[in-house]
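Need the bound structure for pyridoxal-5'-phosphate, inputs here:
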Amino acid sequence: MTSDETRIIRAGHLSGPLARTVGPPIQKGSTVLLPNAAALYDDSHLTYGRNGLAAQEALREALAMTEDAVGVSLYPSGLAALSGTLLAVLKAGDDILVTDTVYKPTRRFCDRVLRRYGVGVRYYDPALPPTELLALAGEATRLILMESPGSLTLEMQDVAAIAGLARTRGILTAIDNTWAAGFLFRPLDHGVDFSIQSLTKYVCGHSDVFMGSAAAREPERVRQLADGVLHLGWAVPGEDAYQMLRGLRTLPTRLARHGESGLKVAAWLREQPEVTAILHPGLPGCPGHELWKRDFKGAPGLFSFALKPGSRGAAEAFLDTLTLFGLGFSWGGFESLALACEPQLKDRAHRKDYGGTLMRLHIGLEDPDDLIADLRAGLDAYSALTR
Ligand SMILES: *Cc1c(COP(=O)(O)O)cnc(C)c1O
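Answer from helper R.:
Posting the output first, comments after.
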């Protein structure tokens, strides 16, 4: 008879099969127990838990279906998915072209990390026609990083044309597809090599879990992504993967509501005397609408608008008067959010002026008429300090 100490170590191991639930089991494990000695070094066995177990695998499979990808890698955040993809394919001496309207922390990674490792970084104007963009590429240009629509100012790009031209030159393309939540637009169908998104936004949907993904279709690109994660040693928790998979189930339903309410609020804002421009590619007449109509099957609830020029105090009064919009970064959750954009445009190399004080809104799942009334009160506060 073994001692109590030993028996307590061996106690409580379930031996039967697990009950079948709607969601995958959340397995927790670094060690994976192997059936015999030969299996320890047999590559066909999963031998370690870092790359994820049942919940992570289920999420990867579901995301691959959503983006029509062959392989998907998971990362601890959206920013890690962007940096991880770049690190997986670039080497010293390479040069990359990055849209000037890229998410600001991506720009920080390019400037402060990639450059330090000997990668040249140039920011291009997203308004450039695709042929002129490709004319910027040289011998060393290895990759073009797009974001369409761009962060804060929502410029659209002709992704298919850029990807097609890049391919004929042997240049890789990647896109930050967070606005489309990997669902409203499928970059891989348009010839892009890597579709990257922050799952933290709409897939999560509740502003409380971080994760990112990168999807690819060609086996060589899938392998590069997987090797990149392997080499950097990143892991995502099973609980978080489970949460993301749960969010994915209601993503289309939530996006439909975010999108419809967003368009309603944007159309209303356009009629207000304080508003000089709407930056929402889903709204007819707005910049990029034709490309959006061609490529996207819907819009989410994120857009920006310009107020007629006014003081900083007036802009702050607008935001501080809002009661249904939280003031904060990130987006994609059930609640509405607002922020001022100008401080984030400072580093941009090309366009910085959008004809007024730029505000970004995330339209949540509230009743849009309540949000409109809240915005009207904010605009009144703005007007009172602008005349
Ligand atoms: C938020 C965001 C990211 C980064 O995602 P995290 O999960 O917060 O790291 C990347 N790209 C875009 C466009 C984003 O809005």
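Comments: The two ends are 89 Å apart (CA to CA). The mean pLDDT is 96.
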